[in-house]
């Protein structure tokens, strides 16, 4: 008698195919990691196509507003440290009476700036959100009639207030989330 091998079920076949596609997609993402400027140029290009679609179609302002709020939220998470000094300050105030911050004296330990949302995840989430928003502009269910200047003004006010609060937080706890203007040391310093 021949041995009967179990046939592959349709679910297993779909699962194997999906798994293979996910691995290929992850490989492309991994290959794109070192090309930061090119990734961001592609995202900005996609955002311009999205805005062009909104401008030409004269609709879907709620989709654009929602995308703007989401991108603002991502940007704020990108600017914030992973370990918030204000939470540490609350914990430390009772113990030593000083507010937390980055080290300013020689005897304090060095704590590097670690982002709450790393650059790659920021790029990936922003690009995915823009692509989803672009797809939403092709369905009339998302075209809710609104007076768009109100949304623009509200978003600008929201941006100004949240950025002011974030900048005040950065000044209060003395951290800079960017490497522009920071001292760079050579490896072969004498």
UniProtKB/TrEMBL annotation:
Instruction: Tell me which UniProt keywords the record has, alphabetically.
Output: Membrane, Transmembrane, Transmembrane helix
Membrane recorded as keyword: yes
Q: What is its main location?
A: membrane
Q: Which residues cross the membrane?
A: 38-56, 62-79, 122-141, 147-164
GO cellular component terms, alphabetically, are: endoplasmic reticulum; Golgi membrane
Report the membrane topology from the UniProt record.
Multi-pass membrane protein
Q: Where in the cell is it found?
A: Membrane
Q: Which GO terms describe its biological process?
A: protein retention in ER lumen; retrograde vesicle-mediated transport, Golgi to endoplasmic reticulum
**Family, similarity comment:** Belongs to the RER1 family.
Q: Which PANTHER family match?
A: PROTEIN RER1 (PTHR10743)
What is the annotated role of this protein in its UniProt record? Involved in the retrieval of endoplasmic reticulum membrane proteins from the early Golgi compartment.
Q: What is this protein called?
A: Protein RER1
Q: Which organism is it from?
A: Hyaloscypha variabilis (strain UAMH 11265 / GT02V1 / F) (Meliniomyces variabilis)
